[in-house]
């Protein structure tokens, strides 16, 4: 996708990230949650997709020993279907590979078939279910793993 730069998230990006978060998720993260992830969580790495100085997507990852745990990926509604989710996921995979982390995991809503298809495209496999993981509506999560 032209004119899209994937870069590290900064505190200045949080307002726009929160807009995307509210569009994308039934139970959005708070400003405090993102600030804590950026400032205090030494295991966290967050990135944004910047198109013409507008944040159009973001993704997050926890780097825990030999495992990368994707916390979230979201794209602004008006920019979906343009490959931005692919770019974000590719960068999260690159971050892990640069650190010689070959195992990646995530949880995704059972109903979120679009996200599951994206993850499967990059080698993630369904490996289990977490019953009632999403407490807002007691929805199950599909556990997915990518092992290189």
Helices and strands: which structural class? alpha+beta
Proportion of strand residues: 35-45%
The overall pLDDT average reads: 95
Number of beta strands: 7
Rg to the nearest angstrom? 15 Å
Distance between the termini: 26 Å
Order of secondary-structure elements: EHHEEEHEHEE
Strand order of the largest sheet: 1-2-3-4-5-7-6
Low-confidence stretches: none
Shape: globular
Q: Characterize the largest beta sheet: strand count, sense, and whether it forms a barrel.
A: 7 strands, mixed
Helix run count: 4
User: Can you give the helix content as a percent range?
Assistant: 25-40%
Which descriptors would you attach to this protein?
148 residues, alpha+beta, 7-stranded mixed beta sheet, 4 helices, 30% helix
Any overview of this molecule?
30% of the residues lie in helices and 40% in strands. It is α+β, with helices and mostly antiparallel strands and 148 residues long. The protein has a 7-stranded mixed sheet. Strand 4, helix 3 (84-98) and strand 5 form a beta-alpha-beta unit. The longest helix has 15 residues, at 84-98. The chain starts with a strand and ends with a strand. The model has no long low-confidence stretch (mean pLDDT 95).
Can you give me a brief rundown of this structure?
The chain is an alpha+beta fold. Helices cover about 30% and strands about 40% of the residues.
